[in-house]
Amino acid sequence: PDLDFSNMSIYYTTAKGKNNLILNTYLGLNQNGKVQVEYIWIGGNGELRSKTRTLPRVVNSLKDISAWNYDGSSTDQATGDNSEVYLVPVKFVKDPFRGGDNLLCMCETLNAKTMQPLLTNHRRAASKIFESKAVKEEETWYGIEQEYTLFGAYNKTPLGFPQNGFPAPQGPYYCSVGSNLAIGRQIAEAHYRACLYAGLDISGINAEVMPGQWEFQVGPCIGIDSGDQLWLARYILQRVAEDFNATVSYEPKPVSGDWNGAGAHTNYSTKSMRADGGYTAIIDAIQKMEKMHAEHMCVYGLDNKKRLTGKHETANWQTFKYGVADRGASIRIPRQSELEKKGYFEDRRPAANCDPYQVTSIIAKTTLLDAIYPTENIESGDAALDSDDEASVPLQSVE
């Protein structure tokens, strides 16, 4: 008799043990009033980690989610003889993977003995800046454009690239339509909807200049919430990519040669900038940032030199310039802001792999607190650190 293949997908399990149809039969089971919370944190190399805990009842506020711990010796954050790292919940959202009352929860990491933040916990220093009176009064708004590149399961070539050689040159891929151009659209769409379900302020997506490269935007968010939301959106993206048997790269220059890199352009405004006549405040803030260009570059992402070459819609990392509607500038002022004499500006220097806590807080500190940073170990021409630079692992908050 003829074989019926109509339900084969129900029985098919990948080599990595995935079968979403079968999984969904279990995810539909009653949880008997209990809630699963996914604790998420930043590991020792800037990567995301997570694990799940059962809570006895529905969560109504952050205080309902208890602190936890994990083995820091397995994440390059502690030694085996003093391995515990303390997890402090800071923000939770709905879990788009388990549904129901289940949650995703972003956490800070502390030394379990001293209760001091780990070197990789840049949120704690950032929150102090955002809690300062001068910064709070200005209601800092951020919108971060997170670019990323999709690779196959074994992380060798971007989606849309042949195994040997290269696809057609850049030009037709940006905001493209068509299966031969908009490579990875289903992943981007699934991520978009998952973030909306979670309650994140994701404001859009688009295909980027290089094939297999996409962008999502998070914001506007106020202060520390920008970093919290971007990290949660990154986590959701990587989980979505699992279902499509793909991996996500935030490398600033994922493919060498005549291909665009990946950034995290950061749009920024204050109450003064948004008010009538705020254009003066915009220029004043940019001029402050120009004086601190080298210091900002130290926390704008690893291997950013490879991306900021002066080509492919970037300014060279050794120089600072700003301009209206200029995507080859360090900082771009939108034409609308110039015409209306108020609004915001876009810092185009941060790399896709930056820590948004560091980026958002140093912008606020420079523009609103008139910060003067230590210049030891920062020399002209050496500020945009490479992964090989000793000072760059881990990157520290500039205090």
Give an overview in words.
By secondary structure, this protein is of the alpha+beta class. Helices cover 25% and strands 22% of the residues. The chain has eleven helices and 13 strands. The chain has helices at residues 8-11, 20-27, 123-131, 133-138, 185-198, 225-243, 271-274, 279-291, 293-297, 335-340, 356-368; strands at residues 35-42, 48-55, 68-71, 84-94, 103-111, 141-152, 202-207, 213-222, 246-249, 264-269, 322-324, 331-333, 345-347. Strands 6, 7, 8, 9, 10, 11, 12 and 13 form an eight-stranded mixed sheet that branches. The chain has a five-stranded mixed sheet with strand order 2-1-5-4-3, with helices on one face. Strand 7 and strand 8 (213-222) form a beta hairpin. Helix 3 (123-131) runs parallel beside helix 11 (356-368) and helix 5 crosses helix 6. It is globular and about 60 Å long.
